Amino acid sequence: MNDVSCLAEPLTLPCGAVVKNRILKSAMSEVLGTPSHAPQPGMANVYRTWAQGGLGVAVTGNVMIDRRALGEPGNVVIEDERDLAALQDWASAGTEGGCQLWMQLNHPGKQAPKFLNTETVAPSAIGFGKALSTAFGVPRELTETEIEALIVRYGTAASVAKKAGFSGVQIHGAHGYLVSQFLSPRHNQRQDGWGGSLDNRARFVREVYRSIRDAVGPNMPVSIKMNSADFQKGGFDEDDSMTVMTWLEEAGIDLIEVSGGTYEAPAMAGMVKRSTSEREGYFLDFVGKAKERLSVLLCITGGFRTPAGMVQARQEGAEMVGLARTLCIQPGFPNQVLAGEDVVSGVKRLSTGVKAVDRIATLEVTWYENQLARMASGKAPNPRMGAWSSFATTAARMGLQSFRMRRAK
Description:
Elements: H1 5-8, E1 11-12, E2 18-19, E3 23-25, H2 42-52, E4 57-59, E5 63-64, H3 84-94, E6 100-106, E7 121-122, H4 130-133, E8 140-141, H5 144-164, E9 168-173, H6 178-183, H7 198-201, H8 203-216, E10 222-227, H9 238-251, E11 255-259, H10 274-277, H11 284-293, E12 298-301, H12 307-315, E13 320-323, H13 326-329, H14 333-338, H15 355-361, H16 363-376, H17 387-398
Parallel strand pairs: 3-4, 3-13, 4-6, 5-6, 6-9, 7-8, 9-10, 10-11, 11-12, 12-13
Antiparallel strand pairs: 1-2
Helix pairs in contact: 2-3, 2-16, 3-5, 5-8, 16-17
C-alpha cells in the first residue's frame, strides 16, 4: 500500500474555499462545443465521470472569450449569458461529490489557426517561423483600446461562469497563448505601456486577474496556468516567471499551475530532454526553486504516472498535483491513488507505424479526444483503441479538417 495521505489532505485556498484533496485535472481541449460554441450535452457526462473519479479540482478545457478568436475546432465560447442553461448543466455535473470545477478562460492570440479565423491579433505583428507559418497567419498588432476590451471580456466570462455554478476560474497564461505572448519579449515587442520591461509586459495578466477578481468577488478561487519558461531563445525565462508569480501572489491569486513551452517548443506535451521525460514531474526542479522564493500555492502538471511520483511532488513543495491524459482512459485513477493502490498510468506513445500518417493524424491529441467522445456518449474509455481505428473515427466524426494544427492543452 502507498502512503498517499499527503494527497488526501484538504487544501484551504487564500480566498477561503476548501479543496477536498490535492489531485487536479489539468485542462485539455474536449472538442465538445456545438457549431454555435455552446457546450454539447455530452460535456456533462465527461465531467460527471471525472467528478465521481475522485478529483479535488477539475479544470475545464480552454473556454474562449471571443468567438472571433478560436484556438481549436469545437471550442466553447462565452461572451454573454446566451448559453447559461447548458453551462449550468455542465457545472452541476462537474461539481458532484464535492469536486470543484474551475473554468479555464483563454484567448489564442496569434495561435489561432487560419482555417478557423478570418483574422488573428497579438501584442505585436510577429508571425511564426517556417514550420508553423502555413497553419498560422501573421497577426495584427492589438490597439490599446482592443487590449482594454479584451480585459473586460475576461471579467464578463468569469461572471457568467460564476452565475452558471462553476466553483472557480483559471486564466490560461501558458503555452504561447495571448497572456503568454504578452509576457514574452520574443513575441511582445510593443513600445507602449504594454511592452518593453517585464513590468509592462506583465501588465496585461495583472489587469486580466483584476478584471476577473472584480467580477467574481473575494471568495471564489481564481487560478492561473503559467509557464516556468517558454524554452525559446529570447523568450520568457525562469527568472521572469518567478517575478511575475510574485506579483500575482501579492495581487491575491489562489493557485498557480506550473507548466512550460509553446507550440514552437512543446515542453508541456513531453517534448523535453530524455532525462526529464523519463521522470515524473517535468517541471519539478522549477517548483523546488520557486518554493525558495514564493509562498504562493503551486500545482505541478506533466508526466505523472504513479502514486509514488505524485507523492514526491507533494514532498518537494507542490500543494497540488495535476493529471491530464491519464484521466481520458482511467477516469477513476484519483480514487485508486487515494485508496493506496499500486496503479500505473496507461498513457503511452501512439503510432500507426507510418510516420507521415502520425504527423497528419496528430494522434497524441485526436486519440484522447476520441476517448472523451466515448465518455460524452455514456460509454467507457477504450484504452485498446488502435491508432488506425482512432484515425478513422476522427475522420468520420469531425472530418479531415480535424487533423490540421491541433493541441490538447
